[in-house]
Write a structure and sequence with these properties.
- With 204 residues, this protein is an alpha+beta fold.
- The protein folds into 2 domains: 49 residues, no CATH class; 132 residues, Roll (Mannose-Binding Protein A, Chain A).
- It is built from 3 helices and 8 strands, in the order αββαβαβββββ.
- A hairpin with a 2-residue loop joins strand 1 and strand 2.
- The longest helix is centred in the first third of the chain and has 59 residues.
- 21% of the residues are buried.
- It binds calcium ion (CA) (3 copies).
- The site of one calcium ion has 6 residues, from loops.
Amino acid sequence: MIQSCHSLRKLDALRAMEEIYVNVEDIKPSISQTAETIQQSHTNQTSIIICGVKKSLIENTDIKKTCPAGWRMFSCTCYFLSTQSGSWEKAREDCRARGADLVIIDSPEEQTFLSGFISTSETWIGLSDREEEGVWKWVDGTPLNLTYWAVKQPDNGGGDPKWGEEDCAHLGHDGSAHLTHDESAHWNDLLCGSLLRWICEEMA
Ligand SMILES: [Ca+2]
Ligand SMILES: [Ca+2]
Ligand SMILES: [Ca+2]
């Protein structure tokens, strides 16, 4: 009687252990998930702290970006509008000598800013199809994504020998701008040897 009682207890204990084992197996995924959540939140906390440190470094630093005399800042970038006029090639040389290059227009905001910056001048920009006719490239080699060509441009001179081969782009408030219903300056291709003012943009 006593023996059977013991056996029964053993059996009960075994069953109980088995149940615990099953329960542990059941909660295993949620344990590892909890561990992952803790790690994730730790990572998040770390990046929040890093962000905070960076921000306070930036805010507390005395180094404020400025542009050289005669340059204008727009969106943390410095721009120079020449007073002289010259060929596209000469314009580019001048910009490079200033540690910059001819302007690359790569956002609508920049196009709008430059439209006001040039006032009524016609200015060279860092865009040409000199390497391959009809393939327009910026001076840093990037292809054209955003375009603000004037109506019927680029026309490579339209076949009129008077205009020659037009492989360099300039910005200006040309006569056809009113057809595009906005105040923005537009681009036109022109003989590279034409004498225009130019805009330099400091390199990033
Ligand atoms: Ca730019
Ligand atoms: Ca051309
Ligand atoms: Ca043209």
